[in-house]
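Sample entry follows:

_____
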Amino acid sequence: MSNPDEPKSEKSPEAHAPPTVAVEIECEAVGTGSGLGVRGILRRWRREDLMRKGSLTLRAVALLFSLLSLIIMASNQHGGWMNYQHYEEYRYVLAIAILSTLYTGIQSLKHVHQLSTGKELIAQRTWALVDFFGDQIMAYLLISSASSAVPMTDRMREGSDNLFTDSSAAAISMSFLAFLALALSAMLSGYKLSIHSYI
């Protein structure tokens, strides 16, 4: 039995002390300097939202210029030798303009769906790879088609400057502008792919 005269053994004060270390670490994480707190998360969300909207804008611009190139080249038929179908370079410009219009249209619809619903149609990793490789391939094809048609258009314009050569030059210019938009989009897609651990 215990003796009432004996002092009761008290537990050490450390056993009753609250866990201050964990609280201090959490407070430091929420602070402004670490970037791991609420401000860091909000900054990351704003950056991701800006990248989504920027990607949509670049693809919409590429869609517009690709569609203009397609329409201008397809309507470039003025009879006789002034018909785009007689020239392989112009048929190449038209074919790539069609592909670019389809690709950028699908990508723009995907971005609009994602921004409006907040849901992905396909896994994010798959779309990131499609964006990265698709943008690069389409940008290369656009600059390839534009550069193949420029020398012939210049030679034609030396002989006679008419509606056919002006329309050809306009379609080539639209293809080049679509290339610029897709090249910027490809850089943005590469950046998005590099900051996330998809692979």
User: Anything to note?
Assistant: The two ends are 68 Å apart (CA to CA). The CA atoms of residues 75 and 84 lie 9 Å apart.
